[in-house]
Amino acid sequence: MAFSMKSYLSIFFKGMIMGFAELIPGVSGGTIALILGIYKRLVEAISNINLTFLKGAFSRSFKQSWNQADLNFLFFLVLGMAVSVFAFSSVIIFFFHNFPIFLKSFFSGLLLTSLFYKPLKPEAIDKKFLFGFFIACLVILLVWNIQPTEFAEVSLTYIFFGGFIAVCAFILPGISGSFILLLLGIYELVILSIKEFNLTILSSLFCGCLIGLLLFIRLVKRAYQDYPEHLLGFFYSLVLLSIPLLWKSSEWKIALPNYQLGFLEAFLGLVFGVLCVFLLQKLSSIFQDT
Fold it and tell me: CA–CA separation, 34 vs 266, rounded Å?
């Protein structure tokens, strides 16, 4: 697939947005990929990394196999995500501890507004859509029953397992990989490891993410091929119901602002979130790479 400099910059920029979103518990990079119009291509590109790709890379031109697998797209997307994660981890920690209401309101506005735009906006609400919607409700119901914890020290095996589970959430719009890490009790540990560049912890997390991603992505691709209407209902429900998850304080409890400045902070965050979707839609049409 031929690429121009405009395409490289577009994909890199979208990767940065996805990386920034993944740092926030409750916001899925998969959701951002959907909003930016690159989700299906992301699933296809990742699923191309298989035994056929490896055999082709060693039996013929590596460059030919690389291009056929659309790995230019993946490379610049992941590069943008990595730059964003390392550049903004300190910023996220600051906002997470000092302006949590603004941060939650911002992403609530972003998620809610994205439901009114393609590809999340359904063309028709039928039985297949409602079936997918119902299945997602069951998933969110399960998550609501889990109480977040936080561990100061855990084994590398547990971190590997955390990465394996979290990356499955990353590829599903509506469920945040960061939120899964929070539920597993290793979110702050991972963020601090990114900030301090702790290679031991990051390597274990990366290995878990890589293996989980390569295995889980094939299920998503198969669902796209065989059950597209069900999948749309599933994704729509996940995004919609992930909004109250952002405000979850404990099991079956939501913590909303209860003071004047808190409401102002929430309002400003909501406005910025709505405006961000308009901006992303505009940029997506300008920097079209597909």
Answer: 25
Quote the CA–CA distance of 183 and 168 in Å, as a whole number: 14
Pair of tokens at residue 173: 């719009």
Instruction: Give the H/E segment covering residue 120.
Output: none
CB 265 within 8 A of CB 99: yes
Residue 172 parent element (H or E): none
Q: Distance between CA 279 and CA 284 in Å, rounded?
A: 8
Q: What is the mean pLDDT of the chain?
A: 78
Residue type for 171, please?
Answer: I
CB 39 within 8 A of CB 220: no
Fill in the DSSP letter of residue 148. P
Best CA proximity match to 109, nearest among 263, 272, 249, 280 = 272
Contact 256, 108 (CB under 8 A): no
Which structure tokens are listed for 78?
Answer: 């992941």
Tokens found for residue 26: 């409750």
Q: How far apart are CA 234 and CA 248, in angstroms?
A: 21
Tokens of 206: 């990366």
Provide the residue type at 210 as one letter: L
Q: What is this structure's pTM?
A: 0.68
Integer Cα distance of 125 and 119 in angstroms: 14
Give the CA-trace dihedral at 161, 166, 172, 178, to 10 degrees.
Answer: 170
Beta strands in 173-268 (DSSP E): 248-250, 253-254
> Mind listing the pLDDT tens digit for each residue in 97-145?
788 888 888 878 887 887 887 777 788 888 999 998 998 888 778 777 7
Provide the residue count of the chain. Answer: 290
